[in-house]
Amino acid sequence: MIRTKMLMVSMLVCGAGALALIPSPVVPAALAAVSAAADPVNKVCPIRGNEVDKESPTREFKGVTIGFCCPGCEGKWDAKSDEEKTALLAKHAPEAVTAIEAAAKKPAKPFGADAQPDAAALAANPAVKVARGYMAACGKADATALNALFLDKGRATVSENAGDEGTWETYRDHHLMPELQEMPGFVMTVAKEDVQTFGTTSIVRQIGSFTVPDPNHPDAPRKYLAAVTYVVVDDNGMPKIAHLHWSSRAEKKPAADASAKPETGHGASGGHEHK
Question: What 3-state class would DSSP assign to 27?
């Protein structure tokens, strides 16, 4: 990766069933704004047998949303096997079993662009909110907001192109935050954004570009093409980034610049230089 002052920003952006969204908060200022993807299909809590409270945490199970009567029941639910969960639903909430059977009969949704939600639904997706929260926090160099988006205690990892950046904490302290301080107000223009969800894990992609000031050419900032991939998981009811992969390269210059010194990183073979 490019480590000169001019180009330091390159790293900053840095059961199964039907698709389900991860219910919960995102960044500190917006924690209360994230809600569950769908209403529970059951009226009675499968753990305690009491009426479901729609404000309590939910879980996705075989393509449907299961609700509980109070916080804490979801943890007991998580500890059950699929067979035990199905038996509990059959006993306390047979309507949920019916909903699961109906979901299983639905044709699989196509993978790719045709399967993507509309703009409003995409913006409301909790995993997408996490990804957008990352970009927003980078623009503000807000370490507190950034930390809130990742699994803590060394559980989250970061990769850049073909390089291993280690844990989130290492990447944050050694690379990201120092570079954000030198590039205030960073903005990545996202041209394409999509999400795929598998149970309680979502993969968000953002593809776009950003510019880097060139001290030698103040009126002609350098443009970079970038792609960011986030693996977002459910951590005790909250969506958190478990892995982030940042990839970028300088936009190709006209042939007149072909003799310029090749860059290091961002797809080049020069390796990864550290400051």
Answer: coil
* DSSP notation for 63-125: TEEE--SSTTHHHHHHTS-HHHHHHHHHHH-HHHHHHHHHHHHSPPPPSSGGG---HHHHHH-
Instruction: Kindly indicate whether the domain formed by 5-14+125-257 is annotated with CATH number 3.40.50.1370.
Output: no
Quote the CA–CA distance of 94 and 30 in Å, as a whole number.
36
167-181 pLDDT, tens digit each: 999 999 999 999 888
Contact between 234 and 21 (Cβ < 8 Å): no
Residue of 129, 248, 243, 241 lying closest to 179 (CA atoms): 248
Task: Look at the pTM and tell me if it is higher than 0.85.
Answer: no
214/220 Cα distance (integer angstroms):
7
203 close to 213: Cβ distance less than 8 angstroms:
no
| Contact (Cβ atoms closer than 8 angstroms) between residue 32 and residue 25 | yes
Query: Quick one: DSSP state of residue 14?
Result: -
Report how far apart, in Å, the C-alpha atoms of 171 and of each of 62, 146, 159, 187 are: 36, 12, 9, 19
Highest-scoring range by mean pLDDT, 57-61, 79-83, 149-153, 209-213: 149-153
Domain boundary assignment for the chain = 5-14+125-257, 38-105
What residues contact 96, with CB distance under 8 A and at least 6 apart? 41, 42, 46, 64, 66, 89
